[in-house]
Amino acid sequence: MTLVLLFDLLLALGVFWLAWQTLFAVSLFRGVVSFMVFGLLISLVWIRLQAPDIALAEAAIGAGVTGALFLSALGRLDDTDSPSFRVLPWTSPLFLSAAALTLLVCLWLGIAVWDLPAPGLAAAVDAELERAGATHPVTAVLLNLRGFDTLLEVAVMLSAVIFSWSLGAAVVPHAPAERLPGLPALASLLHPVFLLVAAYLLWRGSHAPGGAFPAGAVLGAGGILTLLAGGVDWMQRDDRQWLLRLLLVAGLALFLLLALGGLLLTGTFMQLPPAWAAELILLVEVGTALSIALMLMAFYLYGEPAR
């Protein structure tokens, strides 16, 4: 047994163990922490599967931002709100049925993955890279060759923000300054780091793993930290709501403009002109990253900032 295989086995066991700890933790806090560590291990799984783009998004959104949302919600719950779980014995019919169904689904997925064609669409993507505007295949696919899928992802995130705002007015971030006096200083110290990392990921996305989604997730994480420190008060001011809503829809609006522009210039919906593809991809990446960051911050506010 090689060290790499041993690492993969330990990683798989760690993922299953943390999933169990997340679902059946004795307290909600332990469950949230287990979920955050679970997200980090899943990002390692994606790295082992040679998908660093997904690993970046998983670490930033699945572990970081989602963990912050869970911790924020947990801080607003009373101690009496923690539910008690009853673990079924492994001999119960319900447990055996669920285990059998899970095993069948895993077996079916394994057979489906085993029968996938070896080359896939890599050759077709490589043939279009010169006209796609990006030398990194994932960026070329997400923002040009299959940009419609990314457009739908941004639309789904924006719809989720609208639905969360329909729950009521926004709440004050759960981080009183008198209990965390060092948080504003920490946010001021780390905020330039978040900006630099996000800018680097945006620049790197054209030729290597990175792009709008990881950059937006990093910006969103920095924004949530700033919200915890009492900053970004303009998001909850009545006279700045037009700016917030404009920035939230900027990514989707840019995608739609590019889609219609591609239809007029090339005759194909969402196809960018090869001569301007690189510049247009950078433009839409900047707008999408900013919109994603503000969407994640809007989720953290848990409601509509102003009526």
TrEMBL record:
The keyword Transmembrane helix applies. Residues 186-295 form the Na+/H+ antiporter MnhB subunit-related protein domain. It is a multi-pass membrane protein. Its main location: membrane. The chain crosses the membrane at residues 28-47, 54-74, 94-114, 151-171, 183-203, 210-230, 242-265, 277-302. Residues 15-78 form the MrpA C-terminal/MbhD domain. One of its GO terms (cellular component) is plasma membrane. Keywords: Cell membrane, Membrane, Transmembrane, Transmembrane helix. The keyword Magnesium does not apply. It is found in: Cell membrane. It holds the Pfam family MbhD. Belongs to the CPA3 antiporters (TC 2.A.63) subunit B family. This is Multisubunit sodium/proton antiporter, MrpB subunit (TC 2.A.63.1). It comes from Marinospirillum alkaliphilum DSM 21637.
